[in-house]
Amino acid sequence: MKIQKKIQSFCKENQFDLANKSILVATSGGVDSMILIDILSKIDSIKKIGIAHCNFSLRGEESNQDEEFVKKYANQNNISFHSIKFNTKQLAEERQKSIQLIARELRYDFFEEISQQYHYDFVATAHHLSDSLETSIYHLTKGTGIAGIRGILPKRKIFKKSQTPIIRPLLCLTKEEIRNYAIQNGLKWREDASNQTEKYKRNFIRHQIIPRLKEINPDTEKTFLDTSQRLRSMENLLQFHVNQFEKTILMQEDKSNLIQVSEIKKLIEPLLIISDFLKKKGFTYKQAKQIIEQLENSDQKEENETKNFISKSHILYTSKNEWILVSQKKIINDDKEFLIDINFNEKCIFQNEENKIKLTLKKCNPKEVDFKSEAMYLDFDKLDSSLLLRKWKNGDKFIPLGMKNKKNVGDFLTDLKIPIYQRSFVYVLLSKNEISWVGIIEQNKAKGLRIGNNFKLNKFTKNAVKVD
């Protein structure tokens, strides 16, 4: 009863009261999960309990015996049983991932599916205090921040679709307490021989490092529980400041985040805030350090000098006065070319829904031209009957309106101070391989930047075409 009350108290302290809840318990058949299912079964206030077991087929017949053992326990105790079998090694090879990573993904996908299908409020795993300490030490040796050294969270949401939280009720108990409970209550469990081999880093920490730490402090695990709680509070405080940063400093500009460098310099600990913010966007701590170091040396940078930092999901463009963060999903990286036939009487609308490209060409009388509008006008009779629309490329040159000599499109964009990220949306319209129009097409909206000088209207122009 003492351990049950300890667990119930721990759960309430961490905002997941078990009363009147349906709980799906991840059960491998090992001592930890068998203790968890036993303790939860004895808490009368819990509405319903179910068992979820994954057979990863990694230990031959032993894996099948584990499944039969858990199934038999569920039947004997009238507990709902859900199981699934995977060919984990084959799936790891097919998806080119480690066995540990693929097993984790398969396990949690299965738990999510069952929790949704049978309406469980929580999914409980048997992680305990000793696991949490091992995790902290492991991360500490690899290099980490607060989230790494605070250990395993008592409650978190990790499922892709479901809002069902994962809970760890045993995080208040050490491995020793769990084994003592199992022996005292005559519980049976399955042993996994791989837990004893020290070829796995976590097992080495468990069998070699933690026992040495206990020579210094026999209550190492219990003192870590207090430390973990303090670190979680620090993590919450950091997250508050990161959220404030996002609310007050980030400014939306189209589909990107514009960040003023002057505001970043006001932060008390810019590296701490920025690294945590950028971590969500896929950037490493090493990249964050390089970004902040560049910020500290920004006085030495040229006004238009830009440096890019790339993660798997985002690109950060940094300059002396501002940063622009862009999702790579928003950047169209293709070399498609589109032919536009201008043999039309009044109006032609070119639209490509897949690439969100839209360009309108409309014939008009030169006397009706409105040069105050954002639209640009070309001499229709100087154009070929078939125009080519494509993204600009390095090396593209044209004669901008009002100039006599050719200019690199890249240099032209620099002169206009077009941000690096926005250059991904710059298109050129060519007539017989000569650029007649340069503009930005984004989200089905076109904005002309300049026409080619050879296509300008003059006193001899009979037909004009409006491009917007």
UniProtKB/TrEMBL annotation:
<dbReference type="GO" id="GO:0032267">
    <property type="term" value="F:tRNA(Ile)-lysidine synthase activity"/>
</dbReference>
<dbReference type="InterPro" id="IPR012796">
    <property type="entry name" value="Lysidine-tRNA-synth_C"/>
</dbReference>
<dbReference type="InterPro" id="IPR012795">
    <property type="entry name" value="tRNA_Ile_lys_synt_N"/>
</dbReference>
<keyword id="KW-0963">Cytoplasm</keyword>
<dbReference type="GO" id="GO:0005524">
    <property type="term" value="F:ATP binding"/>
</dbReference>
<dbReference type="InterPro" id="IPR012094">
    <property type="entry name" value="tRNA_Ile_lys_synt"/>
</dbReference>
<comment type="function">
    <text>Ligates lysine onto the cytidine present at position 34 of the AUA codon-specific tRNA(Ile) that contains the anticodon CAU, in an ATP-dependent manner. Cytidine is converted to lysidine, thus changing the amino acid specificity of the tRNA from methionine to isoleucine.</text>
</comment>
<dbReference type="GO" id="GO:0005737">
    <property type="term" value="C:cytoplasm"/>
</dbReference>
<keyword id="KW-0436">Ligase</keyword>
<keyword id="KW-0067">ATP-binding</keyword>
<comment type="similarity">
    <text>Belongs to the tRNA(Ile)-lysidine synthase family.</text>
</comment>
<dbReference type="InterPro" id="IPR014729">
    <property type="entry name" value="Rossmann-like_a/b/a_fold"/>
</dbReference>
<keyword id="KW-0547">Nucleotide-binding</keyword>
<dbReference type="Pfam" id="PF01171">
    <property type="entry name" value="ATP_bind_3"/>
</dbReference>
<dbReference type="InterPro" id="IPR011063">
    <property type="entry name" value="TilS/TtcA_N"/>
</dbReference>
<feature type="binding site">
    <location>
        <begin position="28"/>
        <end position="33"/>
    </location>
    <ligand>
        <name>ATP</name>
    </ligand>
</feature>
<keyword id="KW-0819">tRNA processing</keyword>
<protein>
    <recommendedName>
        <fullName>tRNA(Ile)-lysidine synthase</fullName>
        <ecNumber>6.3.4.19</ecNumber>
    </recommendedName>
</protein>
<dbReference type="GO" id="GO:0006400">
    <property type="term" value="P:tRNA modification"/>
</dbReference>
<feature type="domain" description="Lysidine-tRNA(Ile) synthetase C-terminal">
    <location>
        <begin position="387"/>
        <end position="467"/>
    </location>
</feature>
